[in-house]
Specification:
Helix content is 58%, strand content 0%. The protein has helices spanning 18-31, 73-93, 98-110, 114-127, 132-143, 148-161, 166-179, 183-196, 203-215. The longest helix is centred in the middle third of the chain and has 21 residues, at 73-93. It is globular, with a radius of gyration of 17 Å. The N and C termini lie close together (9 Å).
Length: 221
């Protein structure tokens, strides 16, 4: 369902076209963010709600701007390697430091190095398995590594530890919708999200995603 200015397919509460809302929601999924922790036209804000350590949300999702050339994945990896190098070295002497491992994972996730991020999230979660924000971030990495089933498994595990977690419920809906073409499952997850979080500050966006899913799918760019 494409939308354009003046077509009437614009959410009155958000003032955003439907396709813009969906794009923002996808960026939210990429960063592993709760939907209350981002806003239009700016980088991701504070760390994940309830996070014990810095995760991907600490670092900007956008790694280039304005008139600067777009970085390649290899350049982004090089930057991440440099940024994480001291932490990686420190982790060698502190292999059971989950917070350190998850911080490294966040650096790689923010640089779109999802394999490396997945490795460090998995190491950290072996030590701290009930860390819901980290498990939700791992799910995002798996999804962007084309493993929707693995991502859903991680989110379902996260929701066993915290059934009301806004991050996990939002991403559960996004991955079912985008990765599995399961509109009914996505709607159920988002409705549960709104039920459990009635004061959610991005409630209008979630409501529009639900409406789009009921109408037959996301808008085409």
């Amino acid at each position: 369902m494409s939308s354009a200015a003046g077509t009437g397919n614009e959410n009155a509460a958000t003032g955003l076209p439907a396709n813009r809302v969906y794009t923002i929601a996808t960026l939210c999924l990429l960063a592993g963010l709760a939907i209350g922790y981002f806003f239009v036209g700016a980088h991701a804000g504070p760390a994940l709600a309830g996070a014990k350590t810095p995760t991907a949300a600490v670092y900007p999702v956008t790694t280039y701007s304005g008139g600067h050339p777009k970085l390649t994945l290899e350049q982004m990896k090089q930057m991440a390697d440099v940024q994480a190098s001291a932490l990686v070295e420190k982790s060698k002497s502190q292999p059971k430091n989950a917070a350190l491992l998850l911080q490294i994972a966040g650096i790689y996730q923010a640089s779109h190095q999802f394999k490396q991020a997945t490795d460090y999230y998995e190491k950290g979660l072996k030590i701290d398995p009930k860390n819901v924000p980290a498990r939700t971030a791992l799910a995002s990495c798996l999804y962007y590594s084309n493993d929707s089933d693995g991502a859903l498994s991680q989110l379902n595990q996260a929701l066993k530890y915290n059934p009301k977690d806004a991050n996990a419920l939002f991403n559960l809906g996004m991955i079912k919708y985008r990765g599995k073409n399961d509109a009914a499952g996505a709607i159920a997850a988002w409705q549960q999200l709104l039920k459990n979080n009635p004061e959610l500050d991005r409630k209008p966006m979630v409501e529009q995603l639900i409406a789009e899913a009921k109408a037959g799918g996301p808008p085409k760019n």
